[in-house]
Request: fold
Amino acid sequence: MNQKRSGFIPLSRWAEYALLLLTLALNFLVSAVAEAQKKAPPPPPTDLPGHVSYLGQQLPGVMLDDATPITDEIQKLVLGDLQEWMAERTPSDVEVRRQLEMAFSELHYPVFGQPAAFAHSWKGQVVIGAGYTLGWNDYDRTNVIAIFSSQHGHSHLVTVTNFVPRTDLHYAFPEEPEGDALRFFVYGFRLGKSQPRLTAIFYSFDGQNLKNLWEADDVYDGKINFEKDKVVIRYLIEEEYTREQAHRRKPPRHQTVYTITPGGLEVQSEQEIPF
Reply:
């Protein structure tokens, strides 16, 4: 006489349970992988303009002091490309500028890269300045100047400096005979107040190192002119400007004339001039 055993589950039913659990686990794993793929950022492009653009997209909204890891990575990529490209050539300043423009060609507003290059013959070589301003709004900007030495169709990187942040980038060479050092001005203008502010540095390059010979920082409404062996800076004093504007009067404008000397710059004259 057959008796039914209570609580007994046939092996086929256990197999069904195991298959169901396995299916649920696989579905969960597939969903987790798909979700992770959605959240994971795509890898950076392998080409230089695309990679620079990929990094540049991360800059808007980032404060200048916090942007260093990104701007340093862009600098590494751009200068690395320049070193490889320039190794077997002596390019002109126009060619260097175009190479830099190519590196920044895929950046999108508000991010921009503005090249500034020079090529200057000195002591049997061509000294090449490959510089750029990288910015992501009207105020947050970084400046890089890479100095290359080129001889006999070969170029190599000598030194790199970061001109003051938050400005643009310009160069000027004084009219002076060739000496033991190549001397030049780097200057730029900073926005952020009612008037732009000027910063200028007079550099000396001895073939290996850059030396700062003279510097003017944050000159309010500063305007700079280079006249043979002189530098003329016209400017306002911010406190005077604010006070006189409050009374609807024109503030005095100031002018300082510097003479270029072997040691740098010396003040020749200072005076007030009409606004």
Notes: The longest helix spans residues 11-39. The two ends are 121 Å apart (CA to CA). The chain has two domains: 46-162, 166-275. The mean pLDDT is 91.
